[in-house]
Amino acid sequence: MLHPQATELLVHAKSRGCKIGLITNGSLFDEENSRALLSVGVDMIEFSVDACDPVTYDRVRKGLDWDTLNRNVRRVLELRKSMGSTSKIVASAVNQQGVDIDAVEKYWVSGVGIDYLIRRKFLTWGVNTELDGARSADPAPYLDTETVPCPFIFERLNIDSRGNVMVCGYDISAHTSMGNVNTESIRDIWLGEGFTFYREKHLAGRGKDIQLCSGCPDWKYRSWHHNYWKVVREAERARDRKLGRLGEHDDFDAVSEVR
Questions:
Q1: pTM for the predicted model, two decimal places
Q2: 69 neighbors 26 (Cβ within 8 angstroms)
Q3: Structure confidence at residue 227 (pLDDT)
Q4: Among residues 62, 141, 151, 158, which one has the fewest Cβ atoms lying within 10 Å of its Cβ?
């Protein structure tokens, strides 16, 4: 939302038939941009909250304001209700030391009224790995990196502000180059030689032959099951339940855990 035309760009993309999921800290949401996003039915807005009280929030989200976050999230929920918008409103929290993740879920789902809370692993992205690894409150791996391919090279595309495409988010320094969207189509890049090389290696059980992948501390925390698409499905059902759109056999526990 720091981009001066962020709202305009998101509205345009939605009007062109794109599915839009926005992840935000919520600090720059006001009534005008909230109305604009809800009016076009942006598919899902995820607020990164990470806390359920001002003291913890000040520590894990330093520089942001707890009251501003609460005011902006509650406004979005109220506007959605009054406008009859179909947008899903969720929040996420990193499961880390010093944060009561159950209390965070209770506060934001039962208290504030968001549709769903996503519990995220504490990922280091290879930065300060030794220090940050101790901050995770849920270090159990999801998959065996010796036998299971990393889902990211099959599910995600990372494009930086210059249009460059890296193989995944772990390559934050852009050592890999899959192409540039200013000169190539996204389709051609996604199906091109670069991604094909990585996928074939991983599918053959040889992902660790690749230096970048062998050194990734977060591969084991990827999942083919606890992923964004599961969040979308669960959030949709929670939203529909609140709006009275579910049949009597379609209900479910809206605060079941997604990691």
A1: 0.83
A2: yes
A3: 76
A4: 62
